[in-house]
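User: I'm new to structure prediction. If I give you an amino acid sequence, what do you actually give back? Let's try with this one:
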Amino acid sequence: MDTNEVKIENLCVGYKNINILNDINFLAGSGEVVGIIGPNGAGKSTLLKTITAVLRPTKGIVYLNEKDVRKMDRKEIARTMAVVPQHTLISPMFTVYDMVSMGRYPHIKNRFSPFDSARDIKITEDSMKMVGVEHLSEKTLDAVSGGERQMVVIARALAQEPKILILDEPTSNLDVNHQIKILKLVQNIVRGKNVSAIVVLHDLNTAARFCNKLILLHDKRILSIGTPREVLTIENIRKAYKVEAEVNYSKVINSINIIVLDELNGKSDDDLKNDGIS
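Assistant: Good question. You get back a string of structure tokens that encode the predicted 3D arrangement of the chain. For your 278 residues, that looks like this:
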């Protein structure tokens, strides 16, 4: 079985001599959904941009399946990794089929190659079926809902036949039903195709439920990495998010459940210990 992974070694990233991330090290392996979490400004989007070679690190290396991403051309990157951005700018007059078929572009050998080969058509159709948007094939993008449009973007990513999926807040601005549907879909894709997925999420309960591994960013570094139970502790939540929280386990969803109680109001960890909160 192929190993599909992202490996980050000693990564440092900055803008205009200002460090955003320092000494980032982790592995996202085959069959894993790795969640990137952290407060606003922690560097989550910067990390994704570096993984996808939009930004060049000041130090360290990003490996995609053991290849240095800096030494890969754009088409090779796109054949290895598919990105589901937070916002997709595309003409609303394209049909759903048109949108999904764009995922085949990285596999076209040259500009004279046929774009709609039998294989391209089959993969496009299979990707729509896997996501459940085949019935929308002839609809234009302005005629589908926000949740359906996000499903279409994921189908386009699948049409790339990626080994690695990168998703930047894929459930933002969606209702609860579509949030669950999309994240279950990501889980099924990762398990069924043995790919690895890295997903940025804001909601901690969602991250705990749908990710195998979490990476909590804080103060330009990884504060904690591990399973949701290992990462989402009262102490880590307090330090990263500056809130008091209660962490319980729910048998119903087989996951931890976090209840935010209050902001810290400037209290230090020592103050909270003295108050008997720790």
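You can read the tokens as a compact description of the fold. Here is one thing that stands out. Residues 86 and 168 are 5 Å apart (CA to CA).
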